[in-house]
Amino acid sequence: MELKLLNAQGQSSSNVAAPDTIFGRDYNEALIHQVVVAYQANARSGNRKQKDREEVHHTTKKPWRQKGTGRARAGMSSSPLWRGGGRIFPNSPEENFSHKVNKKMYRAGLCSILSQLAREGRLSVIESLSVEAPKTKLLSQKLKDMGLDSVLVITDSLDDNLLLASRNLPNVLICEPRHADPVSLVFYKKILITKLALAKIEEMLA
What is the pTM for the complete model shown? Predict the structure, then answer.
């Protein structure tokens, strides 16, 4: 498998060889879906709280007598059947949303995503990406010259200038290979990988 090597103008100058075991796999939609859903679910926190009938502050007095009224029998107004009553199965902050995905499946899902990105022409390699100062304007202009508006940049090491310059750009994310998650790979239109980061990805997913 060969990936495009872009220059400073965003044009393909040559190709870079990449292993087929990572960038030449078949598209496995079911596996990618499972990996993406699991990643999002594991990032979710249980911050919802609802009250059950024990926690709802209602009187425990019986609303009306058991028989003879013609209405359905009722014990107390905190019943889940009543408006304002407690929930039968309330949400609690201890609720666990996590999904388990084996390491082998997770790596295979990442490889399938990277392979599909390479086939669609959304993944490219660049020698390096840096800016002279931590200025958003410099990075924005550089990406504009390369024809990139929504891009995930995977670099071998985080440069402070590059990281600070990218924080105010809503459609730009700078990360290291170990932090390249499946959701970001699917979300951004273009993926830029530096040469040294490409070697790290090959070592990480080998």
Answer: 0.82
Report in angstroms the alpha-carbon separations of 88 from 5, 16, 46, 56: 58, 59, 18, 12
Half-sphere exposure of 118 (CA within 13 A, CB side): 27
Sort strands 2-6 and 123-126 into parallel, antiparallel or unpaired: parallel
Q: Tell me the β-bridge partners of 100.
A: none
- The CATH number of the domain covering residues in 2-28+100-205: 3.40.1370.10
- Convert the pLDDT of each residue in 104-134 to its tens digit: 999 999 999 999 999 999 999 998 888 999 9
Which segments of the chain belong to CATH 3.40.1370.10?
2-28+100-205
Of 98, 136, 117, the C-alpha closest to 184 is: 117
